[in-house]
Every structure is written in C-alpha cells, then in structure tokens.
Amino acid sequence: MEDKFDCIVIGGGVAGLAAAMTLARNNMKFLLIEKGEFPGSKNVSGGVLWGSDLNKLVPNYWEEEDGGWDRFINHRRLTFMDEQSSFSLDFKSSHFNEKPYTGVVVLRSKFDNWLAGKVQEAIDASDFAMDSFIATDIKVDEVIMENDKAVGIKTGEDEFFADSVIIAEGVNNLLTRQVGLQDKYVPADHMLTGIKEIIRFDQKVLEDRFQLNGLSGMSNEFVGWATNGIEGGGFLYTNRDTISLGLVLGLKDLREKKQKPYDVLNHFKQHPTIADAIKGGEVVEYSAHVVSSGDSRVMPKELYKDGILLVGEAANLLMNAGKAIQGMDYAMRSGILAAETIVEAKAKNDYTSATLKEYRKKMDDSYIMKDIKGFQDAVHLLHTDVMQNKVPNLVCDFGRQFFSIKNEPTPKSEKMLLGAIKRHSSLWELAKLGFKARKSL
Amino acid sequence: MKLLSLPERLGLVSYRNQAKSEIKPHIIVDTDICNSTCPHKCTTWVCPANCYTMDEAGKVHFQVEDCIECGTCMYACDQGAVDWNYPDPEIGRGVTWNFG
C-alpha cells in the first residue's frame, strides 16, 4: 500500500473539482477520477453558478481573458406564462456588475475543463506535484469496503487505495447506493428531468436582443404554460454567443401525464414570447439530465460514513425554492467543506466517522443546509397546482386587462384583479397561498 | 424558428465510440417485465432520447445507441426492469458534450 492516496475523488464535476482544488492547496496526495474524456465532457447543467465561491477557488477569475465561464448575471427575470401572454418580474442592476460577481452562466463542457486546468496548476504547485493526479476515461465500478470502511476503489481489474473517498458522482449516484448511503431504488417522486437546447446566434445579435453589455448576462425562469401542465418550469440563460433554453419537468408527473419531454420543449418554444426571443437562432446541442428538486425527503440518510464523504448532487444537493435553481454552488461549497474535513482527518490520522462527522456539522452550519431546511415549505409550495397553473393564469389574465387600453371607460384595477381571481382561483385559495408563502419564503 | 424533431436533435449529439460496430450496452432492460407485469410502460414516453419504443402490438423495445446518460429511466421505472450503469469508456457508447 505504498502508493496509497490520502483521498480519491470520484467525479470531475463542480463538486469533485472544488474538493480536488482544496486538497491540492492543502498539500494532500489525491487521485481524481473522471469517466469522461475530460472533466466536464459528460456534465450538463442549466446553468447558473450562483454566489461567489468561485472567487475562493480561482481568485480574480474574471481577470482572465477567456476563462471558463460565459457571462455574469446582472439581469434577472421571473416570468409567469399563459398561452398567449407572459408577465414578468424583472430586475436589472449595475450593482451586480461589481466583483466578485454573484452569478455566472456556465457551459459545463468548457467550464469544468477550465476548472480542472486550475486544479492541475494547484497540483503542480503542491508537495505532491508528481503523486497527485487527475485521471480521465476511468469508470469506477465500486468503492472497496473493508469492515464497512472505504479503503479504495475498483475499476475493471485495477484497484486504487486511499484513506478516504469523496463521492462526487452526480445525481445518478450508483456508488452512493452501493455503499449504502442512498436507497438502491430512488423513486421518481421528487426528481425532475432537465432538458435543454443550446441555440447559437451572431454574438452582436444576441447582445442587442437581450440588452447585454460586455460580458453581462440575463437569467430568466418561467412558470405556467411553459411546461404544458407538467410540474416544473422553464429557463433561458444567455451565454457568450448562445443561449441555454430548457425545462425541468417533474418525473412523476411526466410519467402520469404521458408526455414526452422533447414535445414539451417544442411546446415551450412555440410560445410567442419564446419564439420572438429565439428567432433566427440555430440549435447546436440538445441535452438532458436528471436533477433533484430540493425536497429533503429524497436526500441520502447521511453525508458520511467511515472513509466516505458525499458531495454535490450525489447527495441530492440542489434546490429551487422559487428564487433560483441552486445546485452548482451547493456542489462547490460541499466539495470545499468535504476536502477541509479530509485535511483535518489526515492531521488526526483518523478517517473514521468520528472525524468525518465534522463534515456534517460544517454542512449544517453552512448556508446550504440552512436554506434546504428553511425553505422546504417553499419547495413544496412551488410544486402545487396553485403555483404551477392557477397563479400564472391569473397573473396573465390580470395583466392583459390592466395593460389593455380601450376607448371605453376603464374599470378600477381592483375589480380587474377580483375578476381574474374568480376566473382562475378564489379569494380563499389565494388567502391560504399568501399565508403559506409569507411563512415559507 | 423551425422546431426540431428528436432525430434532428440527437443528430447534434457527439457519441463516443460511434465508429465501433460492437458496443457494450451500459443499460440492461428486462423487457420481459415491461411486456408482462408493467402497468404503464412509461419509459416509452419519458426517455428524452426515445431509447424505449413501443411497437404496434404494444411491446416495449430498448436500444442503447441513442442514450445520453441522463438517468431518467432509472428513476421513472418503478418495476425493477432497468439495470442502469454508465458506459465503459472504451467499449461503451455514451456522450461527450460539446457545450453541456
């Protein structure tokens, strides 16, 4: 066991790379294993990386001429849709132009590969420049357990040994299931399928159409008609010269309502607001991936066991509580915290749960678990029929009346609103919704 | 903007080992379950790559070639018919995203 590593990180996504970067910076000897041709080659996200943790991993990342990210977000929009209309909450502020940015749009094939390059630089600068590795094209078949403690991994005929294993395999978490931290079968109930298209434009056309300035970008989420009655929502994010346009669709609902996700995507693209936004674009990629909903009922029983830590989507760390779809930032922070715990474990020479439980504590103290815990009601509320269908229809109905100017006497806004409420819901239902929303948001 | 059909969309995907005539399937589907006891056969519509199809007699068929490793079928199938894994880098299919 001469060649034993301090840690093996499984998966070269945001979580795994954040862990690897932290391990390298702390002079740890590690192996990061990625099954794709290069880190990012099999990864898909919406996607916006929210928050400013990226600046911790790659300080002043924005100074690089062509970094791995696409655009920073200074314009946010939440849109309610019915068949013909869209009613948006729209917020744009130069406040968000300040660095560090609080959200950057990324395309994972490019971003993760770029981040892996930064990890390699950190390895080269560490004490284990010749002994820590990022290895690609390797699929891990199983985590080797001895007396219920992880001691390494197996890939084909080869075995690699380590004092600890960080599982960063993503939402299709086979190894998490193998080691017993997740159930063998995870039902569709709180999972969604994300599908998207990358649509390319002439960069100038894109920038003019979405009023982008330099590398500024917009994020737009959609609820209502977008999903054709399936629980979920839509998104549009601006990249450098492409947009990411897609949907996240409740898997259980897709199953029950017998709809094909790609048909629902075409439905979404035919909405007049979307059709105008994507006119003249060329689809250059179609992709799909399962995502978690943020419902804590689906999450693994624990985030650690002897010799093992779970990070990112492998632990279903993703949440949409109505304000943003947060997943990559959770991945990044959990990766950092897991690696810090491994550093402590090495100092104590104890990789058992006695030390690794500190990771759980760090997570509970972090914004990730505080938010997931604090916003469970919002997650549930977001997936109700009222929020998914009635409110978008009501809001658009009201908007259509409010913004219609006819050459006839105008009713008072309150009357318009009451009419819209009656047509789509009831005062009582909205009062209940308001009460719930006030508590949950 | 013209809407794309699924084959047109899948035509934009870069698959690994595309030139290989023989690939090792990474997902094994026990279609006997689909075609005997499954009450819904949902994979035939939830799969974003339409790897699961139903013939005129209502029988489910599976092909792995178009799979984009999204994981949908692993969660959607509640009948135990889908044995899901990632493709082998050398003899499997699977995707390499250009954008991701």
The global form of chain B is globular
Q: Tell me the β content of chain B.
A: 5-15%
Q: CATH superfamily of one domain in chain A, called what?
A: FAD/NAD(P)-binding domain
* The CATH topology of one domain in chain A: FAD/NAD(P)-binding domain
The separation of the N and C termini of chain A measures: 52 Å
Instruction: Please state the structural category of chain B.
Output: alpha+beta
Given as residue ranges, the uncertain stretches of chain B (5+ residues, pLDDT < 50) are none
Return the CATH class of one domain in chain A. Alpha Beta
The main β sheet of chain A shows up as: 9 strands, mixed
Task: Tell me the β content of chain A.
Answer: 25-35%
Biggest interface between protein chains, with counts per chain? Answer: A-B, 55 and 40 residues
Gross geometry of chain A: globular
Write the CATH fold name of chain B.
Answer: Alpha-Beta Plaits
Got a strand count of chain A?
20
- The percent range for helix content of chain B is 10-25%
Structure notes:
The complex is a heterodimer of chains A (441) and B (100). Chain A is an alpha+beta fold. Chain A has helices spanning 14-25, 54-57, 108-124, 174-178, 203-209, 251-257, 261-269, 272-278, 328-348, 353-365, 367-374, 376-382, 385-402, 413-424, 427-440, and strands spanning 7-10, 30-33, 48-50, 69-81, 86-92, 103-106, 133-135, 142-146, 149-155, 158-161, 165-167, 191-200, 216-224, 232-238, 242-250, 282-292, 304-305, 308-310, 319-320, 325-326. In chain A, the strands form 4 sheets. In chain A, strands 3, 4, 5, 6, 12, 13, 14, 15 and 16 form a 9-stranded mixed sheet that branches. A 6-stranded mixed sheet of chain A has the order 7-2-1-11-18-17, covered by helices on one side. In chain A, a hairpin with a 2-residue loop joins strand 8 (142-146) and strand 9. The longest helix of chain A has 21 residues, at 328-348. Chain A is globular and about 85 Å long. Chain B has 100 residues and is of the alpha+beta class. Chain B has a single domain (6-84), classed as Alpha-Beta Plaits (2-Layer Sandwich), CATH 3.30.70.20. Chain B has helices spanning 6-10, 31-34, 43-46, 72-76; strands at residues 27-29, 52-54, 60-62, 82-84. Chain B is globular and about 40 Å long. The chains are: A alpha+beta (441), B alpha+beta (100). Chains A and B meet through helix 3, strand 12, helix 6, helix 7 and strand 16 of A and helix 1 and helix 4 of B.
